[in-house]
Amino acid sequence: VVIGPYRSGKSFLLNQLLGVPCNVGFGVGHTRETETKGIWVWGQPQKITDIGAERTVLYVDTEGFESTGRSNSYDDRVFAVATVMSSLLIYNLPETIRGSDVTKLSFVVELAAGFYDRSNKVLREECHSHSC
Question: Residue 5, exposed/middle/buried by CB under 10 A (0-12, 13-18, 19+)?
């Protein structure tokens, strides 16, 4: 999943990773208007080899933060859903890191810690009930 501010090159980056031109892959706009709306998923999972193991990758593009006509709560929902559905999150920035970027990344860390804590609790409960 690639996230970041609008017009920061998220779709272009994904097209590069997929090895497809912009007129074939994720839509790339050339105006101030947002091309990607909501969350877009590449139609076919891709096979890659990572450290000798073959993995299946699903490429996901997201609408950029702070796009015209969108509220902060809309951005937060797109960000949260994208974060939950990803095992790898790329935060693409066209410039230096701002305070709002740090806030969003802090949210990801808190969300991941919450998932980790809950999954460990479930594992401990299962272990205790099965006399591990």
Answer: buried
* CB distance 85 to 60 below 8 Å: yes
| Residue range 26-51, pLDDT digits in tens | 777 665 566 677 788 888 888 888 88
The 3-state secondary structure of 17-44, one letter per residue:
HHCCCCCCCCCCCCCCCCCCCCEEECCC
Q: For residue 3, report the phi and psi dihedrals to the nearest 5 degrees.
A: -125, 165
Q: What is the 3-state secondary structure (H, E, C) of 77-101?
A: HHHHHHHHCCCCCEECCCCCCCHHH
In 3D space, the residue among 45, 44, 42 whose CA is nearest the CA of residue 61 turns out to be 42
* Coil, strand or helix at 52: coil
Q: What is the pLDDT of residue 34?
A: 66
- What is the arithmetic mean of pLDDT over 59-75? 76
Q: How far apart are CA 14 and CA 20, in angstroms?
A: 9
- Say what angle helices 99-129 and 72-84 make with each other, to 10 degrees: 40
pLDDT value at position 68? 64
